[in-house]
Amino acid sequence: MAGVGAVALATLAYSFGQNPTAVVTQGSTEYTVALASLYLAVIVAGIALVAYDLIKFAARRITAIRAQGFARTSPGWLVPYTLSKRKYFSCFIVATSLYAIFYSIVTSMVVYQPTVDFVRAYGASIPSAVLTPCCGAPLYTPVLTVYVTDHLGLLLIPLTSLLLVAISILVGLNVAVSAFAFDNRAKGKGRGVAGALGAVVGLFTGCPTCAGIFFANTLGGSGAASFATLLGYYQPAFILLSLPVLLITPYLTARSLARVYRDGCVPFAPEKSTGAQSSLG
Q: Which tens digit of pLDDT belongs to each residue from 229-279?
């Protein structure tokens, strides 16, 4: 809560503090750049606080699961239990990383223009970073432009950066829990259609951006270009709408597993030691 609150308050303060009509001077420019840098630092610190708290929560739940010998079939227990298994933790890491790369490219956070020389076109130094502190809607400023090579750069906006972290992690969790549900679909009695449905829903909602690409390709021709442009403009809104779905999916999957484990508990089975731990446990 502290991390989320810090980001929200900093965003409000930075948004109201912007003044596009102010006279630009050397001193004011240095002040706005310093303020923008502080705002970005708060965002990074907020993300770190949230991540730290979630890791501590998961570690506590895994310790409790090992002590009691079972995990309840609810998202708050099932997700930590799943991540305590090396196989599913690996699924989480791979899915999170791949989607983060995919999201970065689709949202133009990673910019590759082989036909454009950034040095000649924009007068950029390689490598370098340019911070544009003003002005725009909340979470759309400041913009950090990083020139990595003559043709490769990064365009970092607070909103897309926050969504990159949140959506990618949720995608990874959905894939890991869905993989666990799929592997356990026939290990108990009373499995119904809900088990498969929970896994399938998790996999489909694991790629919310794909929906826009699918519809754009379906239209074809000039319609595809126009629709893709429209989707690109409203893409953050579409992805934000997918957050509730990604949050609900583990609950649906947990309900499906309750049909497999009728007593409402998943027995904890210690893994064979391989000399290396690759999970939160």
A: 455 555 556 666 667 777 777 777 777 776 666 666 777 766 664 444 445
* Three-state DSSP class for residue 22: coil
Look at residue 263 in the predicted model and tell me its pLDDT: 60
**CA angle 68-278-264, nearest 5°?**
30
Report how far apart, in Å, the C-alpha atoms of 25 and of each of 22, 29, 73, 161 are: 9, 6, 60, 30
Give the residue extent of every domain in the chain. Answer: 74-99+158-263
Residue among 169, 191, 170, 168 nearest 181 (CA): 191
Distance CA 153, CA 163 (A): 19
User: Which runs of consecutive H residues, i.e. helices, occur in the chain?
Assistant: 2-17, 26-68, 75-83, 86-106, 118-122, 158-183, 193-205, 208-219, 221-260
